[in-house]
TrEMBL record:
This is Addiction module RelE/StbE family toxin. The chain crosses the membrane at residues 6-24, 36-56. It comes from Herminiimonas fonticola. InterPro entries: RelE/ParE_toxin_dom_sf, TA_system_RelE_toxin. Keywords: Membrane, Transmembrane, Transmembrane helix.
Length: 244
């Protein structure tokens, strides 16, 4: 709000000037007709400027609370979620839902090494990589030849989705972590439901369907949607850190 204050005060000054001019240059009957419009034009910036600080702070804190919720999700064990209040569970569920936005899906037989290498080394995000690959295929000689061939492709066992949150969270990891992320994705596509000690665990309760994959001090959160055979990679972060 502090960043907008100079603009709002300027708007208020202009509104005040227009109101004075309009009221004093009109007849008595016209003044009453335009008065409500003038007062709205004049005073709405003041409502914003005088909004109580605790209300402004509440909305300014939303992005930080969302990031904090993600970190709590990564750090907690399945048992920890049994102690959450209804409000806390709702906040986590909304964060999880937001985490699926902007997801780009690939069949499980896709070359994920190429997909992520293009992202890490050439700044080509997964969504753009898929579009670029499709465009090149359609412009190729092989595509024109394939138009005259009738065949069917086998459905993949799983579709692996890269959510916008996941892509953001792996954008700056080092080479060692990149290799381990690729290894984890390969294992997840082979057996997304296989519990492996403390490395791969399902979350329970209201978070049923979410899984946590431990990679050293890091956590990869993913979601399994059996109805559509989808694995959504939702986030990756080190334990105890906060997203940038």
């Amino acid at each position: 709000m502090s960043e907008l204050a100079p603009y709002l005060w300027s708007y208020f000054a202009v509104g005040l000037l227009l109101t004075v001019i309009a009221l004093f240059r009109r007849g008595q009957s016209e003044r009453w007709r335009i008065a409500p419009i003038c007062f709205i034009l004049l005073f709405w910036p003041l409502f914003l400027l005088l909004t109580p600080e605790f209300i402004v702070k509440r909305y300014d804190d939303l992005p930080r609370k969302k990031k904090k919720t993600w970190q709590e999700l990564i750090d907690a064990s399945p048992e920890d979620f049994l102690t959450l209040t209804d409000e806390e569970k709702l906040r986590v569920e909304l964060t999880v839902s937001d985490g699926e936005e902007g997801t780009t899906f690939f069949p499980d037989f896709a070359d994920f090494q190429k997909v992520l290498k293009s992202f890490w080394e050439q700044d080509i995000p997964p969504q753009a990589y898929r579009s670029l690959k499709d465009a090149r295929w359609r412009l190729s000689e092989s595509y024109r030849e394939a138009q005259n061939i009738s065949y069917s492709l086998a459905e993949p066992d799983w579709y692996v989705g890269f959510s916008a949150e996941f892509v953001k969270s792996i954008s700056r990891i080092d080479k060692n972590k990149r290799a381990r992320v690729l290894e984890a994705i390969t294992k997840l596509t082979d057996a997304p439901f296989t519990v492996h000690g403390d490395t791969v665990k399902p979350l329970t309760g209201n978070l049923s369907g979410l899984w946590r994959y431990r990679i050293g001090d890091d956590r990869l959160i993913y979601k399994v949607i059996t109805s559509t055979n989808q694995i959504v990679l939702m986030s990756f972060s080190s334990r105890g850190s906060v997203y940038e």
